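User: I'm writing a tutorial on reading structure tokens. Could you give me a worked example: one chain, its sequence, then its tokens, then a sentence or two explaining what the tokens reveal?
Assistant: Sure. Here is the example chain.
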Amino acid sequence: MSNFKIYAAVSVMALTTYLIRMLPITLFKKRITNIYIRSFLSYVPFTVLGAMTFPAIFYATGNTVSAGIGFIVALLLAWKKKGLLTVSLASAAAVFLVEQVLHLLSL
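And here are its predicted structure tokens:
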């Protein structure tokens, strides 16, 4: 890939991310008072984080079965209102154990 194409691609990406951040600041000068819009905007960060994290869960391991088991363990522990550290360590341990069992079964 030539240097021009790389610079053009980086420039387009920079302009895009700049516009996304600049437009709300310039378009909305007053404080938003509508409770429905404020409620919607309060969920946007969680939605974006979930949209970025959820697909990565299933591609983080070498096997989708172990990733699914880890996801189920994390979901169940989160449902029982366990802490973030407990959920992440237990799901990582579950993925590790399932990967080890699958590796032993494949021999």
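What the tokens reveal: The helical segments are 3-27, 35-59, 64-79, 84-105. The radius of gyration is 21 Å.
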